[in-house]
Amino acid sequence: MEETLQSLWNNLISLATDVGGKLIGAILVLIVGHFLIKFIMKTVRKSKAMQKTEITVAHFLMNFLSIALNIVMVVTVIAILGVPMASVVAVIASAGVAVGLALQGSLSNLAGGIMILLFRPFKIGNYVETAGHSGTVEDIGIFYTVMRTPDNRQITIPNGTVMASSVINVSAYDTRRVDFTFSAAYGTDVSRVNAILLEEAAKHELVFDDPEPFARLCKQNESSLDFTLRVWTKAENYWTVNFDLLKSINDRFEAEKIEVPFNQLDVHVTTQN
User: If both were cysteines, with which of 49, 89, 146, 256 could 139 make a disulfide (CB 3.0 to 4.6 Å apart)?
Assistant: First the structure.
């Protein structure tokens, strides 16, 4: 009996030593792996090759590398704990199918992120309109694109939604055309209005001479003559030119006594005896 207890005790000590050693080894791998991944990420981020890479691609690659390194660390820990890799592979495969079915949206977002990286409809820093939102792109992750609106709100849009929607990249080109529509009352001298629009456009220092400003009567509405004014400027000056010309032309219309029509309703009252 005493020999049996001694043998059991020795087996328990051996098992505890074996399991404890594996557990300590796994913990050490987790700790060292954590700091090693941080070091690798920092080194890659500061490497010359990554510095030369376009910022959108660099962000995407760094996110992908971080996930890959963490997966390698977890698999290594599992191997140290002595879990048979064949079983691990089987479990991962089964879980992968289940997770894939449950996370079809996330997989479409991953595919969308890869499509954004490959086709590059926009990059970080661009002002875009997509999926019913508009703002400056701050980050393009593996699953989501983050934008900042002009009023300083953050919008996170799934990449799958972005790629399934039309994308208007306002920052794609260095120049933009600013379009205006101004109305004048019937009876107004059309040539005079055209001249005023072109004069005010020519006065603005941010408006290009080439292409030259364009002004024409574009439509005869029920109660007004509508005029189109089109000018070109640098993309970053779009709103400055827009607001400045709206004010200067309004002031000029008032000074020139050009009537700006507004909707009116005439009511005729018929009295019956």
Answer: 146
Number of helices (H), then strands (E), belonging to the chain: the values are 8, 8
Interacting residues of 199 by C-beta distance below 8 A, sequence separation 6+: 252
Alpha-carbon distance of 95 to 50, in angstroms, equals: 34
pLDDT tens profile 50-96: 777 777 677 777 877 888 888 888 877 777 777 666 665 666 666 65
Residue 229, strand partner residues: 180, 215
Tokens representing 191 are: 């040539």
Residue 189 structure tokens: 């001298």
We report the CATH number of the domain holding residue 239 as 3.30.70.100
211 cis-preceded (ω within 30 degrees of 0): yes
Which amino acid belongs to residue 153? Answer: R
Beta bridge partners of 157: 145
Please give the distance of CA 166 from its chain centroid, rounded to a whole number.
13
**Tally of CB atoms within 10 A around 67:** 10
11-15, 115-119, 202-206, 222-226: lowest mean pLDDT where? 11-15
Domain assignment present for residue 39? The answer is yes
Please calculate the CA angle 230-231-236 and round it to the nearest 5 degrees.
Answer: 130
Q: Which domain holds residue 221?
A: 175-255
Q: Are residues 133 and 150 in the same domain?
A: yes
45 belongs to a structural domain: yes
Query: How many structural domains comprise the chain?
Result: 3
| Residues 153 and 232 occupy one common structural domain | no
pLDDT for res 207: 97
Between 183 and 7, the higher pLDDT residue: 183
Tokens of 23: 């557990």
